Amino acid sequence: MSPPTSVKPERCRKGGVGLVGTIGGYVALCILGGLVIGWLLDRVVHTSPVFLIVGVVLGFVVSFYAVYRVAMGELGE
After folding, report:
1. E strand spans, the chain
2. Rounded alpha-carbon distances, angstroms, from residue 38 to 2, 7, 13, 25, 62
3. d(CA 76, CA 7)
4. Confidence (pTM)
5. CA torsion sign, 68 to 73 to 75 to 76?
């Protein structure tokens, strides 16, 4: 007899593709958003890639937080 699990296998199979798409969308949107905003700020302020780099780094940070929130929501915590 196997021990009971808290996550039902059929839920994982049905929502897996949607979950991967959601996470991928968040990551892409956050990083591209940071890139575009940083690029625009660099053009306005006439700096080299300073704001571009800051924007991409902030995009990564925000995307990790968004993925964390989605994962915790799926796990029910």
Report:
1. none
2. 52, 41, 38, 20, 14
3. 10
4. 0.72
5. positive
The residues, ordered by sequence, that sit 6+ positions from 7 with a Cβ below 8 Å of its Cβ are 75
Task: Determine phi and psi for 70, rounding to 5 degrees.
Answer: -65, -45
Length of the chain equals 77
Query: Residue 48 pLDDT > 90, yes or no?
Result: no
**8 Å CB contact between 23 and 67:** yes
The tens digit of pLDDT for each residue in 5-47 reads 555 555 555 567 888 888 899 999 999 999 999 999 999 999 9
